[in-house]
Amino acid sequence: MEDSTMSHISRLERVQACLLVASCLALALLSGCSKTTLVSVADESMGAPQYRRILVSAPYDDLEEKELLETLAAKALRNTKTTVYKAIDILPPLREYTADEIANAIKVARIEAMLVVALNDFWTNMYKLPDKHVTKYDIKSDASLVSNMLGVKTTGTATTTVIPGMTLKQHNSKFDARLFALTKADTLRLIWRVNSTTSGSFLTSSTGVLESALKEIAQKAMKDGVVASDRQDDISYEEIWREDR
């Protein structure tokens, strides 16, 4: 009887161990990187200007959200070939600005283009993992209970503990980003636009999803040739821009 009981416990422990391993593998699979899809369009008549002095603007009344998005966008765009400014510093959000005022502020700061990053949507998917039941057996042997040569009788108790299942969160975002260039007529012209959809992993924070999306947008701008990157040659667009002025 003891062998049978111990065999049952051993099988149960093996099953629990397998479930634990499976859970760990599932979490490992769920903890991958964020995934972003991008669709962009550019004004081909502008060629590939490769702007180096860029202003990033997040059009939001909430100062904390505006500061966060502009900081993340500036960080994503900044490299050895670019100088990036935040609109919250150049155009303090204390009043409404006209298009002419924005263009003039950009001209005075010798900025070449403005990237507007609008967070169109942000949502969170919730997934509840099932509860886990863990049973612990306390087996006792009592030699005094031997009868009719049946051997040592075993007694015991079973205690089951319920571990609540985790709630997993998956954050998602949609951005609409637009790049405006300062023309010779001191006006702003839309020359590039991109839409992005980002789905984070279950271990990616809400800020992490925003940061990942803005990094992908910045990389796309560099790949499309509208923003200078470390991979490009040493031709200074700023020098060309000064000559055109």
Low-pLDDT regions? 1-9, 17-22, 232-245
SSE ordering? HEEHEHHEEEEEHH
Compute the gyration radius: what is it?
30 Å
Question: Could you give the order of strands across the largest sheet?
Answer: 1-8-7-4-2-3
List the domain count as a whole number.
2
CATH fold type of the largest domain = Rossmann fold
Name of the CATH class of the largest domain = Alpha Beta
Measured as a percent range, the helix fraction is 25-40%
Task: Give the N-terminus to C-terminus distance in angstroms.
Answer: 96 Å
| Overall pLDDT score | 80
Main beta sheet: strand number and arrangement? 6 strands, mixed
Shape: elongated
Amount of beta strand: 25-35%
Structural class: alpha/beta
How many helical stretches? Answer: 6
Instruction: Tell how many strands the DSSP assignment holds.
Output: 8
CATH architecture of the largest domain: 3-Layer(aba) Sandwich
